[in-house]
Structures are given as structure tokens and as C-alpha cells.
Design goal:
The complex is a heterodimer of chains A (446) and B (151). Helices cover 52% and strands 3% of the residues of chain A. Chain A has helices at 54-80, 87-90, 114-121, 123-136, 150-169, 174-177, 185-193, 199-209, 221-238, 258-271, 286-311, 327-356, 364-379, 404-425, 437-445; strands at residues 35-37, 42-44, 95-97, 102-104. In chain A, strand 3 (95-97) and strand 4 (102-104) form a beta hairpin. The termini of chain A are far apart. With 446 residues, chain A is mainly alpha-helical. The longest helix of chain A is centred in the C-terminal third of the chain and has 30 residues, at 327-356. Helix content of chain B is 30%, strand content 22%. Chain B is built from four helices and seven strands. Chain B has helices at residues 11-20, 36-48, 69-74, 111-127; strands at residues 7-8, 25-31, 56-62, 82-87, 90-95, 104-105, 131-133. In chain B, helix 2 links the parallel strand 2 and strand 3 (56-62). The longest helix of chain B has 17 residues, at 111-127. Classes of the chains: A mainly alpha (446), B alpha/beta (151). Chains A and B meet through helix 13 and helix 14 of A and helix 1, helix 3, strand 5 and helix 4 of B. Chain B: InterPro entries: Dim1, Thioredoxin-like_sf. Chain B: Essential role in pre-mRNA splicing. Required in cell cycle progression for S/G(2) transition. Chain B: Its main location: nucleus. Chain B: This is Thioredoxin-like protein 4B. Chain B: It is found in: Nucleus.
Chain lengths: 446, 151
Amino acid sequence: MPIQNPNPNKKKKKHSNQDDDEDDTVQGKQQTQFEFCKVCRLNHNQGRRHIYFPNHKKALSSFLYRFQSKFKNDVAFYLKKPMPLRPEHAALNRLWCVFCDFDILEYDSSFACGNAIAHLASAEHLKGLKSFLWKYGGGMDRMDSFRISESDFTKWEKKCKLLKSEAAGGGSHGSLIGPLNDIHNESKSEYVNSFDKNKLDCLTSDVKCSNSVVPLQDHTIERSQISHSKICTVGPQILHAGTGVGLGARTPNGLPGFFGNQHYTHSVPKEGPAYSCPNDGKVYPYEGIAIGDGHSQGTSSEESRLQTQENGGGNVHSGAPPPWFSAAEKIQLDNKLNQGLGDLVSSLGEQMKTSKLNPKRVGAAWAERRKIELELEKRGELVRHDFGADWLPNFGRVWQSGSRKDSRKEFLGENKTWRKVDSQIEKPSQLQPYISKRMRTENTAE
Amino acid sequence: MNYLLTTLTKKQEVDSMIRDTIDKVLVLCFGRASDSIFLQLDEILYKSVREVSKFATVALVDIDSDDVQVYIKYFDITLIPSTVFFFNAHHMKMDCGSADHTKWVGTFLRKQDFVDVVEAIYRGAMKGKLIVTCPLPPDRIPKFQLLYKDV
């Protein structure tokens, strides 16, 4: 085991390699006997220094966090809302108090986490908590988060008493059921009370009152089709084969009951499941049955065709509009779609583009504004107003020291002075040909 | 001038060019058509215009026109050819190791150099940077002597 030997000046007598367990009183501070740190689960001989090590601090924070989460989630919840504890849930409500090294069982408590709450409020737990924090350095200011104060405990006790008295008085049974049915408590209380009397009544009343989805009592169109087709398939199989209802052409074996069968299939919807077989109960061989299947499928498709024809000759797959759209609306829709499609695509494309571009890019705000301006100009809503002749872009000059706005102002200022100078210069003297002095003097002399 | 790119001669044209180029780098090259280096630059630009067209627009400005003198003064253009970069009407600076970061002086040795420079500008602009460093090695950058303003 690696042992630190921080003091090289130690006397040879006390070699730490051999004398691990001796209390080193002479040197005192450096080495103590080994002890087990519950938090880091580590045997160390660093004594009181150990609690300040970063590893220990990390372990401690996770350790306390775990306990605190259990405390908050379970115990604190039941502290606020005391609930009676059922025996089957008692096994789940155990809590290990890490400070006292004590397992709290709930087998004999009437309320959820009752024993745990009692323990956490007790003086023994407080003592254990204090010693733990001193030993493992958790911070004495955090004590209150790991225990239940007396005031909270008394409040909890009062609530429990109230609950007990309520339960004894035989009020709503909702409390027995638990917190889950709180919402339904009012509506279901009457059912629960009469539960023993008549279950069916309760169910139906429940169903009606709670506005739940009632199972379909009438067949929908699809279902009726299916049921018809099923009946059709069933019918020929049992009674006749290859009836070819409505198709006429395929009538194998010269069925005597052909017309009767036709009558039969059409009469099925009226009669419902209790169909009578007006035909003789001949059972034909396998071939017949197979053909019958084909035909019956044909009949079902025919029926479906009939029904879709009623709907206007289209369905979802063919792209037809749903039947609740009137024809007029349909036309309007089509027109709008065709017009709007181009716009949609372009606008979508633009949206996609703007959403992808970095909003932090250079001149982003300016670009967005300019885009809007251009769009408006395209639409003709905004008349294009030309920027003044003096517009200058944002430019950082070569020898500038301030911001770019300053550079622009500087330039404009320079420009003005330059223009002034120019205008002054623009009154030049008229150009005259050069006359030499001699010429001049000659002229004057003359 | 068929052999040159779109050449701008008026301030208003330059303005509209700057203002209408949105989310793309605008490359403005100042020079005169009689200058051989300018023509060489134009040749390289012409070849690369299509390749950078998705993120850059290129235009030439004739410095001999009177209307544009304001810009020549504003941009401190003294050496020809000079190229100024804009993004969303904001001027983009590039540090090429020379004294003047506001413009690119001279021509590009290769087409790829030009594309690299424009790409660097675009990338910096998209990140929100107003000044970028030149991606080219120093031997590819034309050297010039910058005169102090009062000299």
C-alpha cells in the first residue's frame, strides 16, 4: 500500500512502513490511524484533512444529492399531503437514513412515510445529522434541508388526525382510493357507494355521465360493407357456391337457387345477422366455394362502387375532395391553389433562405430591411425613393481612428472645405499671352 | 469596351450596385482601361466571375469619370488598380500584411487567388467580422508603398 512520507526528518525509529496503526503523537499532525470515509467509501489515514480534498467534496455532494432527492420526492410530498398507507405499499416506502445509518421501515405505520417523517423530525436524527456533517464536512448551514422541523411535523400530525377522523366518520371513500381519483371523486362517489348493489348500472351511468366514447352501436359504412361482404362470403359457403349475384354470367353447376340467392343477398341488410336461408342447403364442393368467394368479393366491390358513386366518384386516393366540401367551394379552392402555389413556393424558398442565414452576419439588419424594401417596390406599394446624391456607404478609411460613422462625417466635412476651396479657385484670372518685359517696355515707350 | 466586365461610370450606378447586392460580396475594382495591370486584373476577374457568382458580384469602376471622384476621395484610392470589398453595404477590410487594410492594391497572380480572397471575405462577413486576414502567402500579394496622407 503506498504510504506518504511527507516528513523526511522523521526519526528512524518510527518508520511508517511498518507501524501503520500506531498513533503518531510526536509528529501528530501528519499521520493518524486509518479510518473509513463513508462518503467516498475509502480507507484513508489523512484524518481531518480528508474532508477538504476535492474528490471527497465531489463524492459528498453526490451522496447528499441522492438522499435529498429521495427526501424531496417522497417524504416532503407526503409531509404536505398525508395519505394513508396500504400494507402492500409499505415495502416500497422504506428509507435509509444515511446520517444515522438506520433503516426506516413502514410496516406498522398507518400513513405513508409516517415512520420516516417521525424519525426525521426527532432529536436523535438531528444529533446524527450534526455529527455526520461535522465528520464529513457537509456544511452546517444545510442542516435544515435534511430534517423536518418541529412545526412542520406538528402540522403533519394534525393533518393525519383529520384524515383519520374523516375516514372513521365514513365520508367519501375517495380517501381510501388514494390521490389518483381526486378529480373523479365527486362524480364517482355515488357510484362507489352503490357499487355493491348494481355493477351494471354503475357502468352505464358512468359511461353516460363521463362523456366517454361509447362503443359503436351502429355499423359505419365500412363496417356495413365488411359485414355484408362477410355475410356474403359466409352465405354461399354454407348454402350455395358460385352464386354470381348480379354478375349473372358465371353460374357454375346450374344452380337452382340462383334467383333465390340473389334475393337473399339483397335482403341481408334488412334482416341483419338473423338471416334465414330461403334456398336449399346444398353444400357444394371446394371449387364452388372458391368461386363463391370470388363472386362475393365482386358483390362487395359492387356495393362499394354503388356507394362511392353516391359520393361523387372519388376518394382520398384519387385526390377527390371530402364530401363535406360543396362543389362551389371546390372550384374556388382549385383556383386559389393554382394562384397561390407559385407565391407559396417562392415565399417558402425565401423563408428557408432567411432562416438559414446567420443573423449575426455583417449588415444583416440592413439586408433584411433592404429585402423588404425591394419586395414592396416589386409589388408597387412603395415608390422607389432615390437616395440622395450624397449617400455614401459605410467605409472605414485608411488613416481613421474612430468609428466608421466618424470617418463618413470627417469625409463630408473635408468635402465641404474642398468644395469651398474649389469655388474660390474657380475665379481665376483670365489667361493672357505672355508678353516679355522688353516688349512691354517697348509698348509703353511707344 | 467589350473586353471588360460591367464598368460603372456614375455615382448613382455605384450606389445602386452597393445597395442592391444583398448577402453577397461586392467586388469593386477601380482603375482605368489603359492600364495594363488593370486589364490583367480584369482578365482574371472575368474568368472567375461565374465561379464566385453564387456569393459574389464583380464590377469595375472607371476612375476617370467625374461623377465617381467622390468615391475615389472617400476610399482614398491613389494606386491603381484598387479593389474594395463590400458586404450588405458594409465595407470589408482585409489584412494582407500591407499597411492598407481597406482595399486590395494590384492584381491577382492567379484566378484561384482571387477566389480564395473572396471566399475569405465571405466567410468572415457571414460570421459577422468586418476585417479578415488574407489567405494568400505573402509572396503572392503585390507589394506597394503607401504614402502618408499629408505627404
